[in-house]
Amino acid sequence: METFFTTSDKIQHIIKSFNLTKTLFVSSIIIGDAYTGKKSLARYLFPDAHLVSGANQEEVQSALENYDELIITDFEKLSNQSNFDFSNKRIIATANYIGNATLIDDLFAFIYTMPPLNERPEDVNYLKNLFVKEAVSTLMIEPHTIDEKMIPLNLTMNSKSLKKYIFLHLTQLSMDDKDIQSVMYNYIFKHLDGNDGYREYLNLYEIPLIEAGLKKYGSQLQLSQVLGINRNTLRKKIHEHNID
Amino acid sequence: MDINFESFVEWDSSPFILFNNSGKILYLNNAAEILFGYVSKKELYDISVSYAPQNFGYKTTSLALNYDSFLFHAITVGYESEEQISLRLYNTPRIKPTRKLETDKFITTNINILLEANIALFKTKNTNPLKLLTDQDLPAFKIDQNNFSKLLRKTLNAFRSSDSIDISLKLLIGQHVIIDNKKEPIIQLAIKANGRYAETDDEIQLLAAESQIKSLLKEHSITLEIPLIQ
Hints:
Chain A is an alpha/beta fold. Chain A has helices at about 10-20, 40-45, 55-65, 100-105, 120-140, 160-175, 175-190, 195-215, 220-225, 230-240; strands spanning about 25-30, 50-55, 70-75, 90-95, 110-115.
């Protein structure tokens, strides 16, 4: 069975409201940014409901004729929303944005707003642990090699970016120099063109080198010694790459 | 032929009152008896005197009177002696719903569940304190769940920034509404607060009318009288 974890008050109220109306024939919609868990929540609450995507107009039409209980995801993608008759059906729709507010107001009895992840710090933490666990198992990483504090929390695309950057971070951790060369090989192979390639792709090497060095050694003087280059050359490079 | 008209007046749905010359009630019909729950004897007597014809006889005046949910559009005041004065108030006709209720399509529902679900929805957006006084023993009744939920959502939403919201749900004892020639009991949902938004009042009235719910919208409150169809 699906589980759904949340400590958010808002979502707890949504769950409460859904649990109360579970057996009633009312139409509800959950509106919120992409990757905030709308579909998971609907699935968790209605594990047996038939599920269709609003991206497929015909499928939605025929499902409405055949089912009394229905989850419609991506509701905003449907083009003929005003033709729907939801009376005496249990409809649970999800949408990334509201679209035509009057129409939504007219169609749905319950209109819920899913809060984005950046308003749910404890949920982020839960998801982070979940994704790290998944990544550790998929990428076959030794868990003790991970530094919790270094794991990035990118919420620009909610759980999608959170997951992506956790996987990227952990993938990078397990790379050796050959892997890094191979990543650069693929990247350069894909992008190289024009007539200034040498200088352009030198960034790939110089920027991380200087940034990591400055972070590690603190001063430009010390770093120039570690790198074995002249302090002025280093300063010029820092200026050239706009490194603070 | 001698006809006694008294019982016709008695059961007239428009209130009829007969005062003596000091404002004491000599007679009142059933409708007037209910009306006196909402307006004082003195007020109606004063109205009778103000709108009385100059000489013996009867005078009908158009005027809008509003006592709680009772709406009147005219009155007739008459007297045939110095001792007695009568007042008849004319009920404003209620707009009949344009579409007939398809009660066979309604689903038997526990109204407390729908109300609680809507309160939970309200709480996802608002943090205002909210008091609920309800009767958990209200019988389940038939209603269009989706339409009624929309009505509840909009009604509660009118109180989105109000303080001290009081919600009460109870059976109105002794009052009935006739739907499809059947006498149905009435459940009253009353929401009161220190103030409210009124921009969706039209929509609330429309949704209520669609379910044959009587809506009473005031500055600080919304009252819904819901027929308990079984």
